[in-house]
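Hey team,

Filing this mostly as a record. A colleague (T.K.) asked me to run one chain through the structure pipeline before their review meeting, and I want the input and output archived in the tracker in case anyone asks later how it was produced. No errors, nothing strange. Just documentation.

Input sequence:
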Amino acid sequence: METPAVPHPLAFEHLPPFVTAPGQTDALFNFVVVFMIAAIFTTGVLYMRLHALPEHLAHRTQKVQFEIVAVLALIALFTHSRIFWIAALLLAMIDLPDIISPLRSMAVSLRKMAGRLVDAPETVPAGAVEAEKLVDPPGKTAEANTTATPRNGAK
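Output structure:
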């Protein structure tokens, strides 16, 4: 059986419980290391979740609005400027009216009325107005399309 270690003559009689004997495992140090790693990881996860809040809110909005919110949130992340994050949050919470869809529908209807639309509106992808194939209406030639009547009524 081992004899208990004799304390140094200059040592205090009652040592605090966190002081370990030489050669023993420091339980308090190990606990603090594990606690700090968990605390730093948890703080980082919470920070990133809070930072991504505008993007989560903007998922239900239009694509353009979502992209603007995502760019503002990314700028806020890299610059640590709160104004960009606040702007992204406000933009994500506001429902912007859909202006593009009615205009696109009117353009497709006008092309259909003019007889210039080859593809049906359902086959034309959204945002691809430039990619639509236009043809001359039946019965007109290329020369007839190039001749224009002056506005002032002169012939």
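Quick notes for T.K.: Confidence is low (pLDDT under 50) at residues 128-136. The longest helix spans residues 27-51.
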